[in-house]
What does this fold into?
Amino acid sequence: VKNLRAKISGRGRCVRISDAKAETNMGNIDLDAFYYTKSKKNISAGFDLLLSDIYADQAIHLFPDVDSLLPMLKTFKGKRNLELAATSRLDTMMRIKYPSLSGVFKISGRELTLGDLGSLKKVTRLLLFRDNSRGYIEELDVCGIVADNELEVFPFMLNVDRYKIALRGLQSFTQGFNYHASIQKSPIPFKFGIDLYGDFDDFKYKFRNARYKFDTLPDYSAKVNEL
It folds into this structure.
């Protein structure tokens, strides 16, 4: 840590951290947070965390709960920016009670690659990816919300290998997921969609009509900013 500063105040069983900033060899950290304990059985916390120019494994090392909140983070290899703002109830061991978690997230980065796709390789082989193990991503910009024990990923565009894909989905904290991918550009001379559902150890897929047929996607930025 090269530089660290923060404002800390406490009053009425509440501790607030504001304007916290840290420069580290892993990346930069900005944090605003509060911790409130009305009683031993009524503990809550909230935070607005921004990690800049950081690798996924480093983010998880610093904040282990990030791996549970955003399991998709490890899929993309390379430096990226991560912003996560949320409130939650806590137990007496300071662990997040996920059913009570509510918040928003944003992930962005440039010049990334897909990590080990595991069982998803059968889909990349079916789609005639040049490289079934990894793919270059020039730019990534994705956001969504966390609520009701699941993560909702709003539609975003992904350019990887020979494909241009519009992707949207739901992922629960039990690792189950339901994603839709609209293939807008590919070696195949027509647009189509793929539904992926199940979990990463045992998932299924089926072809269907593309839900998103044009370059323009629904804009959910206003909804994220409201939350």
Notes: The chain has a mean pLDDT of 83. Helices lie at 56-62, 65-69, 121-126, 221-226. The two ends are 31 Å apart (CA to CA).
